[in-house]
Write a structure and sequence with these properties.
Number of helices: 3
Helix content: 25-40%
Number of strands: 3
Structural class: alpha+beta
Distance between the termini: 25 Å
Number of domains: 2
Organism: Sporolactobacillus kofuensis
Radius of gyration: 14 Å
Shape: globular
Protein name: GNAT family N-acetyltransferase
Strand order of the largest sheet: 1-3-2
Largest sheet: 3 strands, antiparallel
């Protein structure tokens, strides 16, 4: 059975994230480390956050497709030293 995570699931979620980080890094994906994502990000809705914002390279087609599928809205583009990135936002309220 799949269900929406609750605040009391946070410890197990963080354990999974910390186990996945070395696997991602060994594959050259440095998006996560031991400081991000953190409990405040994961538990944001419970903390009173109104939205989640993120970005990804305009070349990262799988992430773009996933974010749109998950209900994020594309807000625009920004330029970083390593290229153009789309900005996304999802309302939590």
């Amino acid at each position: 059975m799949i269900r929406r995570a609750k605040s009391n699931d946070l410890k197990q979620i963080m354990e999974i994230i910390h186990r996945i980080i070395p696997i991602m890094q060994s594959g050259g994906i440095d998006q996560w480390d031991h400081t991000y994502p953190n409990e405040a990000v994961i538990d944001g809705c419970e903390q009173g956050y109104q939205s989640i914002r993120l970005d990804t390279s305009v070349k990262n087609k799988p992430a773009i497709k996933l974010y749109l599928k998950l209900g994020y809205k594309k807000l625009g583009t920004i330029s970083f030293r390593n290229g153009l990135f789309y900005c996304f936002e999802k309302s939590l309220i």
